[in-house]
Amino acid sequence: MIGWYARGVRDGGAKARQQKGGGAATVSTDTARTAQSKIQELAKRLGNDEITKRIEAGNATRDEMLAFVLQQLHTINGAQQQEVDLSKKQASFEFWRAGPGVTPPDPTRWHDAARIYEQAVDAICRGDLRKGQKLVEDAVDQQQKTIDQMTNLVDRSQMEERPDTSELARIVAMAPTAGSCAEPQPITQLLAAIQHEETKPPGTPDAQRILWWEEEEEEEEEEDDADGAGGGGAS
């Protein structure tokens, strides 16, 4: 997964730089000179090979973090779409059939987790992996909180109990910075889809629910009672 993902990230970064006129023109001369001076100083102390290794390690960490975020966004989007479907169903389906006391579906509940993931992606794509890691952990906390609040009518069989971020912490400790890159398009699309979803469930109060199957059962019971009474009279 990481291999193709890393290529996509690099290609996206290259396209973004082309669109901005090559990238170098957007950086001030002073900033470029300062960065070059720091790299030259590190190269003298560590050697070019070590510098290359560190850059490659940081970029690999960045790409793995983005892959983790993408996976979580797919999970969130899947749960949100289930809530959208539940919100559109009529009285003969799961939510309405469940009766009073059931947590209603709410597709907008996922906005907060997506917003924090968006902040994490921004930091990661800038190369600030420590900040990105902290925000990813915050997003996972919000994601778990939202899952706990979610209606139990959503199928959770494909969801992890809680995404494990310990591996991200380990690799960020070894490579806390990386080169910048463009935000991968699949992540951009999922973030937009999740945060722009505004479907609301039907606002029918519990007291006004008309459960047609209960009415049919009552009618059947009344018919049985009538039949029983008629049969008793005949004997």
Please describe what this structure looks like:
By secondary structure, this protein is mainly alpha-helical. The protein has one domain (2-208). The chain is 69% helix and 0% strand. The chain contains nine helices and no strands. Helix 1 crosses helix 3, helix 2 (29-46) crosses helix 3 and helix 5 (111-126) packs antiparallel against helix 6 (129-149). The radius of gyration is 27 Å and the shape is elongated. Mean pLDDT is 74; it is low at 1-27 and 205-216.
Short description:
This protein is mostly helical. It has nine helices and no strands.
Element pattern in H and E: HHHHHHHHH
Spatial extent as radius of gyration: 27 Å
Specify the number of helices: 9
Mean pLDDT: 74
Structural class computed from helices and strand pairing: mainly alpha
Count structural domains.
Answer: 1
Q: Spans with pLDDT under 50 lasting ≥5 residues? A: 1-27, 205-216
Major sheet summary line: none
Shape: elongated
Topology of this protein?
Elements: H1 2-19, H2 29-46, H3 48-88, H4 94-98, H5 111-126, H6 129-149, H7 166-174, H8 185-196, H9 212-234
What labels would you give this structure?
9 helices; disordered N terminus; mainly alpha; 235 residues; 0% strand; elongated
